Amino acid sequence: MNDYAEFRHFRYLLEILEQESLRSAAEILHTTAPNICKQMQEFQEHFHLCLYRRLRDNRIKRTKSGTGSIPIVRDLLDHRDEVIAVMQAIESREINTLRLGSGTFVDKELFHAACDFHREVLPSCVIKPEHADSSDLANEIVSGKLHAALVTLPVNEFELRVEELRRDRLVVCLRADHPLAGKPFVRPAELSGNIGVLYHPERHPEAHAQMMERLKRAGIRVGEFSSASHPTEMQHFVKEGFGLTLIREGTELDADLTTRPIFGVDWTVDTAFIYHRERIPPTIPVLVRHLRRHIAISLKGKDPTEALGLPNLKNGGRKRPPRSDKGDLEQLNLLDWKDQA
Questions:
Q1: E strand segments, 185-338
Q2: pLDDT, tens digit, for every residue of 214-232?
Q3: pLDDT-derived band of residue 1, with 50, 70 and 90 as boundaries?
Q4: Cα separation, 34 vs 95, whole angstroms
Q5: What is the pLDDT of residue 319?
Q6: pLDDT for residue 311
Q7: CA dist., res. 42 & res. 152, Å (int)
Q8: Partners of residue 160 on adjacent β-strands
Q9: What dotted CATH number matches 91-166+270-305?
Q10: Residues of CATH 1.10.10.10 domain(s) within the chain?
Q11: CB neighbour list of residue 154: distance below 8 Å, 6 or more residues apart
């Protein structure tokens, strides 16, 4: 059924909807108004659509469906251009090396998926990985030392394009023999005075201040704490009994550690793909699309809240605990801190 649709239909449709004029659209497309009018009428009838209406003075009035279709159609045509650019790059062998970064707190599996897909598209391209802090990776992309990177937000460089990929819940990391480990979730009051390990605040003072504010709003008191320079160090300090910490859900854990969600809060760590707005290797936009599909497939069949990156406490039949506030998801960007070289 959908084989009837061709790229020219979407090109015609986009111009008509954006220009709101058959004549203007025809001039841009170097054709005639009767031609695109006939083709788009047949297109809409075939798919039972009503994307615009012709008024008596021949002006075009978009329907709600038509207005909503504009970004979708534009994205489809951009995807076409991206695919052609990649095919041309493969043919010309213009991409010999890809310098790809991965933030300290980024899921290793996601980075491996990116590398594997790029090798599949360009087997001869050598991938040069770099593991560092998100802000360092962003600076290296701006300076031209890196092509792209998977990072944890925020990234505020205006020269970069930020493609958010997924959101992961922030959870409490504690020893498996800790009394709180026997509970399905931890209440904020139970964390007061027990958060004893944090990522070094001087590596990102703004993010540290934001995290402390979140904890304060949740009623979680934090006293003196140990500063760690790497996620593995954070786990080591927890294992050695220096207190609890907060990490991304799904982080590979030491065998003696476990995690629990925090009752009543929905803090997330957001992973994104970043690259320069102007210096873009042709394979990068296609790689971003592949990663989004990869994430969607990996979440297929899971709870809808999980597919959206939202908290889900289904575990052994337990229900999700009620919220203690009425706020939306809060993005806790505590992971954008400099890693020790």
A1: 197-199, 226-228, 245-248, 257-260, 267-276, 330-331
A2: 899 888 999 889 998 888 9
A3: low
A4: 44
A5: 41
A6: 40
A7: 47
A8: 276
A9: 3.40.190.10
A10: 2-78
A11: 207, 333, 336
pLDDT at 318 over 60: no
Cα dist. 72→10, 11, 13, 67, 323 in Å?
A: 10, 12, 11, 10, 35
If you ran DSSP here, which 8-state letter would residue 324 be given?
S
The 10s digit of each residue's pLDDT in 38-71 is: 999 998 998 899 999 988 777 889 999 999 888 8
Which of 3.40.50.300, 3.40.50.620, 1.10.10.10, 3.40.190.10 would CATH assign to domain 2-78?
1.10.10.10
Question: Dihedrals φ, ψ of 268, to 5°?
Answer: -125, 155
Task: Kindly indicate whether the domain formed by 167-268+315-331 is annotated with CATH number 3.40.190.290.
Answer: yes
* CA 26 to chain centroid: 38
Give me the DSSP letters along 282-294: THHHHHHHHHHHH
CA 12 vs CA 17, 35, 71, 82, 273: distances in Å: 9, 10, 14, 19, 32
For residues 161 and 272, what is the distance between their CA atoms, to the nearest angstrom?
Answer: 10
Which residues are 292's β-sheet partners?
none
Is the pLDDT confidence value at 109 over 60? yes
- pLDDT at position 237 is 96
CATH 3.40.190.290 spans which residues of the chain?
Answer: 167-268+315-331
Q: Which SS3 state, helix, strand or coil, does residue 160 take?
A: strand
Cα–chain center distance at 63: 31
